Amino acid sequence: MKERHGLDKTEATIAPTMVVVHWTAVNSIESTFDVFDSPTLGGRADLTGASNLNVSSQFLIDRDGTIFRLLPETTFARHTIGLNYTAIGIENIGGPNAPLTKEQLKANEMLIRHLRKKYEIEYVIGHYEYQNFQETDLWKEYDPDYRTVKTDPGVDFMERLRKNLSDLNLKPIPSL
User: Is-contact 111 56, C-beta < 8 A?
Assistant: First the structure.
């Protein structure tokens, strides 16, 4: 955490201020558990140059809206470059060929409302929006070349989610 993010910590914990919503691009819960189960990352040359540690997230939502907690909420997970130290990750089963469901939308909304009651959540972003934070004080990634282009969980899903969460008065995403 010190080398990549400039954080001098003795434990891999976070103080959440953000939720990042993802899709897995894997269409089944079983296959997703298999991907997340390995401690090392396979088949992702775009990420393994920085670390061979597998991706991880605090939550996973199945297509029927069932929520699984994969890690404690305040455990540092590896799901969003530059923001992991402050972000809770929510993975959703689905992707471009399996659009996220109404049940997942409702589950994300309920989970985010729960998290907002426990933590000072200021932002809810789609993974595709993470690079908008590069010029802010929230960004913590020392390698200027360590970036990936993301499309998850899709603009339409995030627009519907933000509409459902509008009463929370979350902060807007910074402009690039």
Answer: no
3-state secondary structure the chain: CHHHHCCCCCCCECCCCEEEEEECCECCHHHHHHHHHCCECCCCHHHHCCCCECCCCCEEECCCCCEEECCCCCECCCCCCCCCCCEEEEEECEECCECCCHHHHHHHHHHHHHHHHHCCCCEEEEHHHHHHHCCCCCCCCCCCCCCCCCCCCCHHHHHHHHHHCHHHCCCCCCCC
Q: Considering the entire predicted model, what is its pTM?
A: 0.89
Q: For residues 55 and 32, give the distance between their C-alpha atoms in angstroms, rounded to a whole number.
A: 11
Query: Which of 17, 24, 144 has the alpha carbon at shortest distance from 79?
Result: 24
Q: Are 64 and 29 in contact (CB under 8 A)?
A: no
Report pLDDT digits (tens) over 43-59: 555 554 555 555 789 99
Q: What pLDDT band is residue 33 in, cutting at 50, 70 and 90?
A: confident
**C-alpha–C-alpha distance, residues 32 and 34, integer Å:** 5
